[in-house]
């Protein structure tokens, strides 16, 4: 008679005379305690079942790894390394935009400077917002640099616009 904490014989033995996958799965998962003694003995003695146990153990390890990946907080893994990129990109963009705008600030500190500064802050905040929204996308890096480029161009165009308007003001004044 089979003890209650062991697999029933009809679950342990297949019709081909080898042990079932249930036995092999139990053994691969370290649950030998529920496997009947004669089935354990067969797996050790039978080359065919030993090979099957090896495959089952590999499958079990793969399953464990995939479960670990599924259980891990995947988004955090993807975002944490990427978060460094937008800071650098935004910093470079603002620095370049600032350098581009510097002559205009020096030459024309008057009313337009304040408006220009507001526009730069608005552009930076828009860039930061879009960086957060896009940070989960595969195109993330490309979009960050594209956004940075847009901000740089905006800065250069604005500084140019300020210069042009100063020039036209001078012409108008003369
Ligand atoms: Zn066998």
How does this structure look, described?
The longest helix is centred in the C-terminal third of the chain and has 34 residues, at 140-173. With 174 residues, the chain is mostly helical. α2 (21-28) crosses α4 and α3 (37-45) crosses α4. The mean pLDDT is 79. The chain contains eight helices and no strands. It has two domains: 9-71, no CATH class; 75-173. It is rod-shaped and about 105 Å long. Bound molecules: zinc ion (ZN). Zinc ion is lined by residues 18, 42, 46, 48-49.
Can you lay out the helices and strands and say which pair or pack?
Blueprint: H1 9-12, H2 21-28, H3 37-45, H4 47-71, H5 74-82, H6 84-107, H7 111-134, H8 140-173
Bound molecules: zinc ion.
Alpha-beta classification: mainly alpha
As an assembly, this protein is: single chain
Largest sheet composition: none
**Number of E strands:** 0
Helical stretch tally? 8
Q: Which word captures the global form?
A: rod-shaped
- Radius of gyration of CA atoms, rounded to a whole number: 34 Å
Q: Provide the β-strand percentage band.
A: under 5%
Mean pLDDT: 79
Distance between the termini: 114 Å
Please give a handful of descriptors for the protein shown.
79% helix, mainly alpha, 8 helices, 174 residues, binds zinc ion
Give a short overview.
With 174 residues, this protein is mainly alpha-helical.
């Amino acid at each position: 008679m089979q003890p209650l904490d062991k697999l029933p014989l009809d679950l342990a033995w297949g019709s081909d005379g080898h042990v079932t996958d249930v036995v092999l799965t139990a053994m691969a998962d370290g649950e030998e305690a529920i496997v009947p003694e004669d089935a354990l003995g067969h797996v050790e003695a039978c080359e065919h079942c030993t090979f099957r146990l090896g495959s089952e153990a590999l499958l079990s390890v793969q399953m464990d790894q995939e479960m670990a990946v599924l259980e891990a907080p995947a988004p955090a893994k993807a975002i944490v390394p990427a978060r460094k990129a937008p800071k650098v990109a935004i910093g470079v963009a603002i620095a370049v935009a600032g350098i581009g705008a510097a002559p205009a600030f020096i030459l024309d500190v008057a009313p337009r400077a304040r408006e220009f500064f507001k526009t730069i802050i608005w552009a930076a905040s828009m860039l930061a917002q879009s960086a957060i929204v896009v940070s989960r996308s595969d195109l993330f890096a490309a979009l960050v640099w594209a956004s940075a480029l847009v901000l740089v161009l905006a800065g250069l165009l604005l500084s140019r616009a300020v210069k042009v308007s100063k020039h036209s003001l001078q012409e108008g004044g003369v």
